Amino acid sequence: MAPKSQIIERVLDGVTAATLLFDASYKLIFINQSGEQLFGASVRHLLGMSLTDMIQHETPLLPAMEEAMASGHPVTRHEISVSLNHTHDACIDLTAIPMNEPDEEPALLIEITPINRLLRIARDEIMQVQQNASRDIMRGLAHEIKNPLGGLRGAAQLLEKQLASEELKEYTGVIIREADRLQTLLNRILGPNRIPEKRLVNIHEVLERVRSLVSVEVGEGIKLTRDYDPSIPEVTADPDQLVQALLNIIRNACQALNGNGDVKLQTRVKRKFNIGQSSHNLVARINIEDSGPGISEEIIDKIFFPMVTGRAEGTGLGLSISQSLIEQHGGLIECNSEPGHTVFSIFLPIESEVL
Fold it and tell me: Could you tell me the pTM of the whole model?
């Protein structure tokens, strides 16, 4: 049986909240995997650092921590804005728990929960409900249109057979061609019509397949670059559906550049990541970054809804279809945009949901 200390460390590594242990002089002596992820540094780099070096706050936290140590009671601070490890800002809930055990050196256990992550989860859930409702309405409408459209096309074909004049047949030809165009549009609105055929897939092979397709379409003014993490394990997915989802997003990124700019494909692993209410040990993140003008504030919150587009010639269906395909794989797409820098992030579970 493993020593008690090792068992405790394994348990803490499985905790979603960042958990840190400081000694009586407020030097770090333990941090779990969620903490490493939050601070963006390895345990080897963080051990021995002081509390004030790791967590910077306008109103010093140290007096509150000293109060917890002196009183022997936990101290909690909600929704505080801090700088973590001098690298990035975050909004967090923080609880300090004094560990004053007899015959042992006093210590301070700190639990940190990023509030921005919780807000993101809530926002993603609301957006997913709205997008699903919108897609259901559009699919219902598409089904209602398909039947009379088929009848209209059939009637035009029958009429064409009865016409002797080639000039008049041109008009029935217009009806048939437009009916076919609308039929294609309706099929796109209805979205994927087959269950994913999932197997183990290397996401870099999928990305390279998409990159080669897009490279043929774009001009010399658009530069496609790669920044892959080769250590990412295979994901369980339908490769053809992943290709379609990525193709829609990467094509959009290239079209936003108007013939000149950069598109970067980046992959990374995220640990202890939530997709909706599901928590996963490992998630693959695929970023598609472009240097275009950005997405306007008027539509940024609606871009995954059907028929919403920022381009006059666009149908507004590509991103909606991509979101639907990724959702079928238990994943999520997010977008952040500002002038000169737009990022679409695709998150795909690598490991099964953590119970």
Answer: 0.56
